[in-house]
Fold this protein.
Amino acid sequence: MTRQADLLVLGAGPAGTEAALAASEAGLDVVLIDEQADAGGQGWRAPLSGLTLPRKGPDAEAGDALRARLAASRVDRRFGRRVWSIGGAFRLDAAGPDGPEAYQAPRLIAATGAHERVVPFPGWTLPGVIGLAGATVLLKAQAVLPGRRVVVAGSGPLLFAVAAGIIAKGGEVAAIVDMDNRLAWAKRLPGLARRFDLLKEGLGWTWSILGARVPFLAGYGVRRATGETELSSVIVGPVDANGAPADGTERSFDCDALAVGHGLVPGGEVPKILRADHFYDRLRGGFIPELDPFGRTTIENLYACGDGTGIRGARPSAAAGRLAGLAAAYDAERLDERTFDALAALSLKALADYRPFADTVAAAMALRPAQVAAITPETIVCRCEDVTRAEIDAAVDAGAGDINQMKHFTRCGMGPCQGRMCGDVAAELVAQRRGVPRDEVGFWTQRVPLRPVPFDTMIGTFDYADIPIPPPAPL
Amino acid sequence: MSTAPTYDLGVIGGGVVGSTLALFAQRGGLKTAIIDRGPLCREASGVNAGTLTLQMTRVALIPHAMRAHAMWASAREWLGHDVGVVVCDGLSLAFTEREAALLEERAGKRRAAGAPITIVSRDEALRVEPGISDKILMAGHCVVDGYANAYLTGQAFRAALIEAGVAVMENRPVKGLERTDKGFVAETAEGPVTFRRVVLAGGVWIEPMMAWLGVHLPIKVLVNQLTVTERIRPVMRTVVGIASGLLSLKQYPHGTVVIGGGWQGLGDRERGGVELVPERLVGNIRLACHAIPELAGARLARGWAGLEAETADALPAAGPIPGIPDAYVCGSIHSGYTSGPSIARSLADVILGREPDLPLFPIDRLLKAATP
Ligand SMILES: Cc1cc2nc3c(=O)[nH]c(=O)nc-3n(C[C@H](O)[C@H](O)[C@H](O)COP(=O)(O)OP(=O)(O)OC[C@H]3O[C@@H](n4cnc5c(N)ncnc54)[C@H](O)[C@@H]3O)c2cc1C
Ligand SMILES: Cc1cc2nc3c(=O)[nH]c(=O)nc-3n(C[C@H](O)[C@H](O)[C@H](O)COP(=O)(O)OP(=O)(O)OC[C@H]3O[C@@H](n4cnc5c(N)ncnc54)[C@H](O)[C@@H]3O)c2cc1C
């Protein structure tokens, strides 16, 4: 049976949850769907049930507050549902705990968050190498350390969040390797200081890192990871401001884990499937939907908010979520113009307040073209299908002009992750090889499923006679 | 005013049909240009299920399908580039009495047309393909079956066409076609392209292409859904279908399983395959898992829809365009990935002034019905 509602919200991170709350408070019948066990998304993730973690820190508090408000609301919460299909006007199909489920509503808010980006280097496919964002998930939801002795490397604030998280849980950080040098961060201070509360959080991380006397290499990047069957050491070297390897001494750190990440890529599958208009924005992490200030896409009654619409971080995502929820309620004629304007003004202001901070952080996480240019030919770019940089270059030379044709030529992006991991870097490689702007090589054509889903959960139990087999073609 | 034609032949539409035609025409001595609005073979010819099967081929196409199967099997020799062709057995399953009757009737007619299809018992079928469900009653068995990797088609043809000397014009939509006293002028944003003869090989876009010449040929648009699993350990080695033809299933050497059978999604000629219908996708996958039970443990990696063309009588449109000298049409071939190369080759023969060794499908029959 299909659950009918006024509004469907996909994704219960800060963006989706706030959107659902705002729309529900305005009187809409809202269904909020997420594959996780509770609301909070990636940043404000709830710990796995049964785990009693020391609950402290602003993320945990913000997440708990959000979950409490959601629990007290009328929002119909559907957790543990992996949505695999999105149809026009608007239908979601999900694999749920008891089998297939369908939801339908005239309005949809997409709040599916981001994916992480790792710019490949030799050895990044070794067991023991994990993403920075993935490491935050281990630390937050499962209180698990990525390894006994961890090198934390890459760019952006997650670097410090992960290092501080490891230290707080009693783990050893072998080194922190930040692509940005100290000058880059100094230049960012004015932007960061615009949100003193968030800056303070960052300073807290730095404090605990300093206290642990962890070697901190600023202006360094990972050159390669080595090991026989699993990771045993990480070799790092200086990089310039654009991320390209620079002259200088390499250093090696023995470790059993490397948490590495180079920012986030918006997970905008839904607006892409529904063919909303998109544009490329390097600062925001990739191709993002065209939105009005309230999160309306170019498709009627389709709204999008949060990191899936461009990387901004959890708090701005929450504000953008409220705006999308209010807009959905207003468009459904549940809010009059004055109430809408008054409510929206608060979130618009919050969003504007966060902007300098968010832009500063986003800049630290944006893709660095020179880093991509420096990927060596034999390095694997698509790890699902083992496609190397040399194969991508060869495909371009053989006439593959856009990212989808490159995929046909190489199988890059054809594996289970469907290019969610490698897509941004692969597209950059195609654009660089052709010497054209990123826009020209496009983005992967988006298709179902949104995530790989097991057939048995999709198809449930059935009788052969009940399969709606259409009439055969003429003989 | 008319400029001298630059090419002896212009092929508009670079799917498997247009590409094969251009290749044989050029090798036959005609200076040929192929123009596609996108990259070569990225519509039906690049997104299809790649099944090279006689058990889904229309009876009238069996002779072409037999020859095309041999062409695909020897692609390395005449095409020179890999399309991942695997030749193997094929089984068409019957689970119910009704399907058994359908199977016997259809296999019989195809056999009469020259396809080496036999009906085998349940046990025999299980020997051919241990992966299939033991719930089957009987199966059609064909030793001339197999598949290609459709996504490699464009890469292979592109290289072959360039090596043969064909002028390959990709990402160049033709907006109109004008007839002059010397031939044809194709209008594109990058300027006109002129040729003495023309073939319209536009798949489902044959209808708007024919309109350029003032001919109305209705072409129905089918929106075929396909799904592919992530790589899994081997669960089957043959091509598996069912009696009604609404399943096509095989596992590629790298481990993915492609599930098709012509279940319909949403879309149109303007926007392409827009959306999959979840119930139909689930129906198709249920059927696949019923046929190969071990498939149920696999994960769906991706589903998509592509456009397949169909004429009023579901037979191809392949031959001269009546009333317009030097203009030809080629396409709308049911299971056209299998038979397309053979039909395109026959039309190339006609254009080269040779007698085709297999019959074409002139469109006079369709135009009579279409013009009031
Ligand atoms: C892996 C990862 C870890 C991160 N860790 C941190 C951190 O520790 N600290 C920090 O400040 N920021 C972190 N970030 C950044 C942070 O996620 C964002 O800034 C913030 O959470 C954005 O909020 P959002 O609501 O837009 O998206 P998210 O919080 O990502 O929420 C999106 C939600 O959508 C759900 N979803 C998506 N697709 C589907 C589907 N098909 N079916 C069902 N559910 C679906 C997801 O399960 C998720 O709960 C992380 C990002 C990632 C990708
Ligand atoms: C999902 C799916 C699964 C299938 N499975 C099988 C199968 O397993 N086995 C099988 O035998 N067959 C299968 N088929 C059928 C087969 O794919 C087609 O019959 C065959 O590919 C048609 O080839 P074509 O060259 O006629 O058309 P297309 O490949 O569609 O080529 C037409 C070309 O014309 C171009 N064009 C259109 N308009 C213009 C313009 N204005 N200017 C320039 N160029 C233009 C297009 O860009 C396109 O490249 C399947 C089809 C689909 C869609």
Chain A has a mean pLDDT of 93. Chain A touches chain B through 45 residues (CB under 8 Å).
